[in-house]
Amino acid sequence: MTRVLLVEDDPDLALAVRVLLARNGYEALHAEDGREALRLLFAERPALMILDIGLPGLDGWDVLERTRDMSDLPVLLLTARGAESDRVRGLRAGADDYLPKPFGNDELLARVEALLRRSAPARWAGENHGEDGLRLVPERRSAIWQGHETRLSDIEYRLLQLLVRNRGRVITTEQLLDRVWDDPEGTGRERVKFAVLRLRRKLRQAAGDEAADPLEAVRGLGYRYRPPGDEGP
């Protein structure tokens, strides 16, 4: 049974959505706040999350950011109707789709089905990425590379995580600025260059091998994650 995590603090809405999901063959988990959501994410590893932005305490933005540190599972964001800025912010922060409140049952189910249909099984940080010897450790903001752990800054961690998720694909400097630095205007391109240099140096030092570098600069375009021995163009 496909497991779906609903993060919603309105008890009436949460009950209605849980019943709807259960009647349509899903195992519905529920968290009333952000901290409980993160605990369930780590413990249960659902296939999809339905996330309300307006949560008490740890809000939906924090939950979305920390979720993206742990996994690439699909996230359906619940937003206030007409709040275009929330929708744009959510998509830029890594949400896969959004649904304004109030919504109909059929539309919610259709969006859940579409996200699950077009998404591969979620990958979770802390798992090995292929057989290349890399493991991300979100709770310590570090990476284990070739059996050795190295601590990373927040920017370095987010940079490596984005490149790993897009293994083999070139991520442009502009995309990195937008998604790692939240700089959609693409200013400060030198920040990317020096952050990548620092990250590559840390990974090489961790492996004790100057050649053991899984990051590749693609001249005039950007960077990609391609570990040694990974064949590609």
From TrEMBL:
Gene3D superfamilies assigned: 3.40.50.2300, 6.10.250.690, Winged helix-like DNA-binding domain superfamily/Winged helix DNA-binding domain
CDD domains membership: REC_OmpR, trans_reg_C
PANTHER family, alphabetized: REGULATOR OF RPOS, TRANSCRIPTIONAL REGULATORY PROTEIN TCTD
Annotation: DNA-binding region: 124-227
Residues with 4-aspartylphosphate modification: 52
Protein species of origin: Streptomyces luteosporeus
Protein name: Response regulator transcription factor
Top-level taxon in the UniProt lineage: Bacteria
Domain Response regulatory positions: 3-116
OmpR/PhoB-type domain segment(s): 124-227
Pfam families tied to this protein: Response_reg (PF00072), Trans_reg_C (PF00486)
Key words, A-Z: DNA-binding, Phosphoprotein, Transcription, Transcription regulation
InterPro entries per the UniProt record, alphabetical: CheY-like_superfamily (IPR011006), OmpR/PhoB-type_DNA-bd (IPR001867), Sig_transdc_resp-reg_receiver (IPR001789), WalR-like (IPR039420), WH-like_DNA-bd_sf (IPR036388)
